[in-house]
Design a protein that fits this description.
mainly alpha, 2 domains
Amino acid sequence: MAPGPQRRGLHIRFDDLRHACITKLAEGQASEQTLMSIAGHLSRKMLEHHSHIRMAVKRAALDAIAKPVFEAGGAQNWAHSPAAEKTAIAN
């Protein structure tokens, strides 16, 4: 049998595993409701305390929405587009 974490010099607490699990689920696009149910959290504040979304995942999420806009040139031409005119008129 392989030596346990303590024998290998690793000091892992249950709470560390809990944080890691909740973070991985959140990064995998699980809904807040699902995360709270799995973790047994009753408040969003506790969910935020236990999840630590990595910056790389946040950046990838923002890139996913920004990339199509910039590739199509939409960001440069938005102010002069018919959609912008309709939005301006509607507001």
